[in-house]
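Recap quiz, item 2
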Amino acid sequence: MKRRGWIDSLFILPCAFAFIMVIIVPFALGIYYAMTDWNGVNPIVNWVGLSNFQGMFKEPQFIYSFLVTLMYTVINVVLVNVVGFALALLVTSKLRLRNVYRAGFFIPNLIGGIVLGYIWQFMFNNVQVDMGQALGIAFLEKSLISRQDTVIWAMSLVNTWQYAGYIMMIYVASIQAIPGSVMEAASVDGAGFFTRVRSILIPMMASAFTITLFLTLTNSFKQFDLNFTLTNGGPAMRFMAKPIRSSQLLAMDIYRTANQQNLMAQAQAKAVVFFVVLVIFSLAQVYLNKRKELEA
Amino acid sequence: MRKLFSLALAAVLALSLLALPASATEKVDFSVFQLKVEIDPMIQAFGKLYNEKHPDVNVTVETLGGGADYGGALKAKLAADQMPTIFMFEGQGGYELWKDYIADMSDADWVKDTDLAYYDPDGKVVGFPIAMEGFGLGYNAEILEKAGIDPATLTTFSATKAAFEKLDGMKAELGLDNVVSVGTSVAGGLWWVTSQHVFNAFYAGYEGYNDATVYNALRKGEVDQERLTAFATYLKMLYDYADANVLENGNYDAQVAAFASGKTAFITQGNWIDPNLAQLGATFPMGYISHNFLEKESTGLYMAAPSWFAVNKQATPEQQKAAIDFLNYMALSEDGANYMVTEAGMVPAFKSVKQQPAGPLSKALVEASARGGNFNWYFGQNPDGFNQGTLGPIFELLATGTVEDFVTDVTAAFEEIAVK
């Protein structure tokens, strides 16, 4: 019996080694660096305790990035799930070309975040502006990503375009797991389409909702590559009397602090805060969803 | 039999882990990482030529620039233990950041041939000047002629303003979309056009080439409000006469193409766009005027070595020697002069180079240099990341904001980094 245990751990070793080196060690080192004043290049590092953490909550850009990330997350989670769910219903109905639609809706998901950003930057900056000017619609004449009040919605639109197909697949799998007899029985009893969806479908899909809400929540909160290529922090605006970037989400703020301002240690401190907040949110979400699952 | 086979397979796999790369070649490998995207094909060709003529070394050239983040990529290379042997830095800000990786080149042959080398605070030579570059407000001579404006008269703010108003009124008959092509978008990667270059007119304009009074006062936190307001008014005028879409969202290609295709009469770019203009087929005569934000007369342009090559102090001695030989070859040989001037169209920083650049804007620069009365570059001395991170958004905000807010923001920004 002892020999078996020894062999098992040997098999696990490469994987465990990679996990420790790539995740655990950098994480621990990161917490250490967050309490120093390292600038990324200087070989000399001094301990400064918690001053990085205190400093970041006074920066207008960080506070704004935090708030705008929360706003973006809420908008995005709602949009992606509503659209994904609607598409899933469409694709599991008796529509004729539903299999073609299923593949079609999923295809945008295959485009990487960087290419996506550049394509849509072209769409907003050139196509939308030209269309707006040709049709004379004032709202469209200025690119949606150059206005601070619409830039977050534009980002969410692009993310929905890419991600809704993936979420749709998860919902489809869950819908197809529901025995058809239940739905038929309900319609025989006189339940309309929306009643069937609300009272039967959704409660029976509770486990799918746990997964999709978790995925969209963490995906939106951690958004970087789309942010970088589509808006690069986006139009400048004034917040708390200082000029800041209006579409700079948290991940990009951390990147900027590290790379442009060479404040590696402050960036690391922000990353620690980022991690803690995300863990709290996702744990809360999964806990609440699991409770709903059990009830259903 | 099977046991033997699997044992043999395991042995082979294990041995492959121990296999070392082919015994160290005689060649010394070194790398160059540079940020001038407009000369990428030329420097790649020069690298290849150098490898052919020097079989004992192998140089690899990599380029990253235009709108991309060179500084970030260089830091990433350092973190990945792939620090290049030769890399670029753009002034005191860059030097302060990288000084632990910058070698002393005071004994290199090329040092005696130039006045534009970069000296560290101890007086040692640490930077190889890439070229001499410069800018002003570029103009399309054909369009100005058609509009009846003589560029030689555009030497004060009111003269420039009047010219802009005249051109704006004649847009239809001249085939212009806008009077001037300006880009300042953070997203499009053009923050450096305004917050570094055009703003340099504020640091250096109207003073002697080596007179740094305004800039030195600025770094102590004293911001001349009158001068800044005049500059901001001038910059706002440039913005107002530019295409809003290119200004706020455009990238490098969009800004240069608007000028090259004759859709604008002016452009806020330097002589480095000559290769791009040639590629886009722009054959009209062109030149530069000063950034006239005061009523005083000015014809000078803003020129200096834009960046310097540094040799990595932490590379092996063989690599460092190979790198210095490479730089000597670039500065002093016929091939090097050919690459720098004829191929890449740069204005040479080395006195022994006889060739003259062919590009029209570079020629204008050489003329201005001979004429004198030009201005130095100071933005490279700002702390690393300041121009892009702090000034960039302020300059972008001016497009939709007010001159007063701009003046407040810039003053606050310099007060924050003041060195008492």
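Chain B has a mean pLDDT of 87.
The CA atoms of residues 136 and 290 of chain B lie 5 Å apart.
End of item.
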